[in-house]
Write a structure and sequence with these properties.
Chain B: Its EC number is 2.1.1.348. The structure holds two protein chains of two kinds. Chain A contains eleven helices and eight strands. Chain A is an alpha/beta fold. Among the domains of chain B are: 163 residues, no CATH class; 81 residues, no CATH class; 142 residues, Rossmann fold (3-Layer(aba) Sandwich). In chain B, the strands form four sheets. Chain B has an eight-stranded mixed beta sheet, sandwiched between helices. Classes of the chains: A alpha/beta, B alpha/beta. At the A-B interface, α1, α2, α3, α7 and β4 of A face α9, α10, β4, α14 and α16 of B.
Chain lengths: 334, 590
């Protein structure tokens, strides 16, 4: 039975003590010169929430692998490099399609019906408030826009995702798009261009410091057998803003997760929001970006189809990556 | 004399001036002009007399411009009503540009094409007219958005920034609440982690490790390092270092072990493991500093400088000791417990995984009468995977609104997020979700003290971070009644009531809860006809409770509690054993 009368911090340290016990404990004082450097017996853990309350840094700033997520894992580092290289190699020209929010649905309908365009990866939304995601989801024949198997990522604040839950959980929708992961993006501090701020909800109990993504899969993929379509367990469901993140509506982390997961080359990003002049919508190789504020307006269905025909609709298997990436059964993790 | 700055303003803001919401209203145009910072002398907007004079000057300047370039500015024809028109309805940007070029030769490269099409082009920005360098500069400005740019943009952009800053302004209750939390929350020892990898490798050469335990350091090597790398010793004395625990079988090229300090094969694993190194001087100093800080904080608590959201007896009230009841939550009558301000629940959601503990099925969880626990208050519900949706649905059914979602960023021994292995089905999982539900509109909540993230090390399977208790106490106050459902022994703590089938025995200090609990057992006993020695145990727990309240009255209960504990260990333990056995028999027999 733990000691119940000890205060909060004491219970913590007594617990951690048990982690770090060894029979041949150095109990005697060492030479005077060494005394101050004698290793402490207690295993120490920090309470970053408490530290933040006392006016110090935000908890997420204490994560030690923000800049290099795979720090300490050379095999994963190699995998990330190899994948980034290959994804770059099999990327279409960066395309932008600059249209007003009201024309997004008609334009996409035109692409579906008259141009026979489909995409394997579709991302909707970016890291701003005031997005018109609901009309897009209800008005657009998404199941025709996204091929099977296909992947859908919806980025918004958690409140918005909550509101969409009702729609996305109804039977018709849920049958088409199986909800598979919930991704989170965390800005590094309150000066970040991705800091959500107070917009629209001062009734929240805690200050918001994250954006959410609803990731869906349509059609069937199996992680054990469909290695040519998806690479599972490469990325994690959490991204923290890095120093090299350029300002804008969409940090590159969001694209990278989708690119690392699906090997498809046909990727579409719909941003149903005005992002304003201070948050530019950049283009990205391998993606068609539809937004009223995208910086380029160079999309032509014909040219796109030609490029895809040359590239192929999936990035081919590569031995190096196959050997490095985490695989399903038998093999031990690490 | 023509005011060239005003001309520039009219050219650059042509569109904003004429379109809604300004719609050419002269006074509003004047405000935009003033706030745009085109003229240094006009700064004061508020002081009435002065600004009126300046407006007269503004009007005179406009008249000068019209005089110089007739028809460049046209007003609504309303001269009958007032001598001064109120609305600009047309601006001839082309002729204004010609005018401006008189003062600043070749500032605008004017095409010989028809002026009407040119006007359209120059509507928002002088992009086509001002030539390539300026266009590039503007595009780069858009990309490198920072504070410098914020103060330089067009009046429209500046106004938008002001508006955004205004919207970002937090209520003072948030600020005051945060400040109070800073001065009244007990400090928990904090030692930063060193981020310089070279330090770890220096240390690894000078450290002597026996049995996966740092025994001593070679002073000579450390001082040698200090000479080449000034600041090394200070870093050792102020930060946590993780020293590689290199063993004969270790293959450094493989990288770090995924399990690190939790690796079960420490003596054969070929990956790198680490040992935490904190010199005892540092630990002692942290102890000492924290203790002195907390002493000050304790005295702060006694002076109620800001009381909003606090209970009236905040400073003199002592927290209740930990209380708990061992029971099967699915069959427990929540009415026994009364009402709570904060509820934490960590249900073992059935997510088709083989976990080392039993899981409840969804229907059982959804069927829990959690709506009985709070009239108004906060609930924290841990969810995972598919249970995220289920949890949100359940919260709505129980009368809560999902008001926040907290992410617990799980870290390992080295403070890194967990990226290896296959911790999720499609993607690896580096975080867990905690739904925050709010019922009613409680006035006693202290909002926005914490953020919706917890960064904390993982511990035993399914054990959640203790940081949450601190967050909950700051939200609802230390004296609020707080309940944890599905708790285990390590979850019990002062001020909290814990129920679950994995806590050891019962301990209840609140008399009404005790009474209702006894009644509940009695009823169950009667209905099940399992007669156990009830009177015995009842009298014993009565005795414990009596003693507790006496102690409270004596106001030196801390020492007494300890006595009581030891007392319980000797005499009371048997009875508690009996008691929970009875409860178990009851709940699990069904």
């Amino acid at each position: 039975m733990p000691s119940h009368d000890s205060s909060f911090d004491q219970t913590r340290s007594t617990h951690s003590n048990s982690h770090f016990q060894s029979p041949n404990q150095v109990t005697t004082e060492m030479k005077s010169k060494h005394v101050s450097f004698k290793p402490s017996r207690d295993f120490h853990t920090n309470d970053y929430s408490n530290n933040y309350v006392h006016g110090n840094s935000l908890p997420q700033q204490h994560v030690t692998n923000i800049e290099n997520r795979v720090d300490g894992y050379p095999k994963l580092q190699k995998l990330f490099q190899a994948k980034a290289k290959q994804i770059n190699q099999f990327a279409t020209t960066p395309f932008g399609c600059k249209i007003g929010i009201d024309s997004i649905v008609p334009t996409l309908n035109h692409w579906i019906q008259n141009e026979n365009l489909t995409f394997d990866v579709v991302m909707i939304g970016c890291l701003t408030e005031n997005q018109f995601i609901y009309p897009i989801l209800t008005q657009l024949p998404l199941d025709k826009l996204i091929s099977k198997p296909g992947f859908l990522f919806i980025w918004a604040n958690s409140q918005k995702i909550n509101e969409l839950t009702k729609l996305l959980n109804n039977e018709i929708w849920a049958k088409k798009f199986r909800r598979s992961e919930e991704l989170v993006f965390v800005p590094i501090d309150k000066k970040s261009p991705f800091y959500p701020g107070l917009d629209q909800d001062d009734e929240t109990l805690m200050e918001k410091m994250q954006w959410h993504c609803w990731m869906c899969i349509t059609g069937t993929v199996r992680r054990s057998t469909d290695g040519h379509l998806i690479h599972c367990n490469v990325d994690t469901d959490l991204s923290i803003e890095t120093k090299d993140t350029t300002n804008g509506a969409v940090p590159s982390h969001l694209y990278r997760i989708a690119e690392n997961f699906s090997t498809a080359t046909r990727r579409l990003h719909i941003i149903p929001a005005r992002t304003g002049y201070e948050t530019p919508v950049r283009v990205r190789p391998g993606w068609v970006i539809v937004s009223p504020d995208v910086m380029l307006d160079n999309f032509s269905p014909k040219r796109y189809k030609e490029e895809i025909a040359n590239l192929g609709s999936n990035i081919p298997l590569k031995n190096e990556i196959e050997l490095l990436r985490p695989r399903s059964p038998v093999q031990k993790a690490q | 004399m023509i005011n060239d700055k005003l001309v520039l303003f009219l050219i650059q803001n042509y569109d904003d001036v004429l379109r809604a919401p300004l719609s050419g209203q002269l006074k509003d145009v004047y405000s935009l002009y003033v706030s745009g910072g085109y003229e240094d002398c006009i700064k004061d907007l508020g002081s009435g007399q002065e600004s009126l004079l300046q407006f007269e000057k503004f009007w005179d300047d406009l008249k000068d411009i019209i005089f110089a370039t007739p028809k460049s500015i046209q007003f609504e024809q309303n001269l009958l009503v007032a001598e001064r028109p109120e609305k600009i309805i047309f601006l001839d940007v082309f002729s204004l540009k010609i005018l401006y070029n008189k003062f600043h030769p070749f500032y605008y490269a004017l095409k010989s094409s028809s002026s009407s099409s040119d006007m359209k082009m120059s509507s928002v920005t002088p992009k086509t007219d001002s030539g390539e360098p300026q266009l590039l500069g503007r595009l780069l400005n858009v990309l490198n958005w920072d504070d410098n740019v914020k103060n330089q943009g067009l009046p429209r952009e500046q106004l938008s920034n002001r508006l955004q800053n205004l919207l970002r302004e937090k209520p003072s209750s948030f600020q005051l609440g945060r400040e109070r939390a800073k001065y009244t929350t007990k400090v928990i020892e904090y030692i930063p982690i060193c981020s310089d990898y070279s330090h770890a490798s220096f240390l690894s050469t000078s450290v002597y490790i026996v049995n996966n335990k740092i025994v001593s350091l070679q002073w000579s090597k450390i001082s040698a390092c200090q000479e080449n790398h000034p600041g090394f010793i200070e870093c050792i004395q102020s930060k946590i270092h993780f020293i590689p625990n290199i063993k004969p079988q270790t293959d450094i090229s493989l990288g770090d072990c995924s399990y690190l300090d939790t690796c079960h094969k420490l003596n054969t694993c070929r990956y790198v493991h680490y040992l935490q190194y904190i010199p005892s001087c540092l630990q002692e100093r942290a102890h000492h500093d924290t203790a002195s800080q907390n002493k000050e904080i304790e005295s702060n608590v006694l002076t109620p400088f800001y009381t909003l959201g606090n209970c009236s007896a905040h400073s003199i009230k002592k927290a209740l000791p930990a209380q708990w009841i061992r029971c099967d939550v699915r069959k427990f009558d929540f009415k026994i417990l009364g009402k709570f301000s904060v509820v934490i629940a960590d249900p073992a959601w059935n997510i088709h995984m083989n976990l080392p503990y039993g899981t409840c099925n969804d229907i059982e969880l959804l069927g829990l009468p959690l709506h009985e626990l709070q009239d108004e208050g906060i609930i924290f519900l841990w969810v995972t995977g598919r249970a995220i949706e289920l949890g949100k649905e359940s919260l709505n059914n129980w009368g809560y609104k999902v008001i926040n979602e907290v992410s617990w960023i799980k870290t390992n021994q080295l403070g890194r997020t967990i990226v290896t292995g296959r911790t999720g089905h499609w993607l690896n999982h580096s975080k867990e979700h905690l739904l925050v539900g709010l019922k009613g509109d409680p006035k006693w909540i202290n909002k926005h003290i914490d953020i919706d993230l917890i960064v904390s090390m993982t511990r035993e399977t399914s054990r959640k971070p203790d940081e949450l208790y601190g967050i909950a106490e700051r939200l609802a106050g230390t004296h609020a009644r707080k309940l944890e459902i599905f708790g285990r022994d390590h979850n019990t703590r002062p001020g909290w009531f814990t129920i679950g089938n994995q806590v050891t025995g019962n301990r209840i200090y609140e008399m009404d809860v005790e009474r209702k609990c006894q009644e509940f057992i009695k009823n169950k006993n009667n209905s099940h006809n399992t007669g156990t020695k009830k009177s015995d145990k009842k009298s014993n727990s009565k005795f414990q409770q009596q003693q507790y309240w006496n102690n409270i009255n004596n106001s030196n209960y801390r020492t007494e509690i300890k006595q009581k504990n030891s007392n319980k260990n000797q005499t009371g333990f048997e009875s508690t054993q009996q008691q929970f056995q009875t409860l178990n028999n009851l709940y699990f027999a069904q």
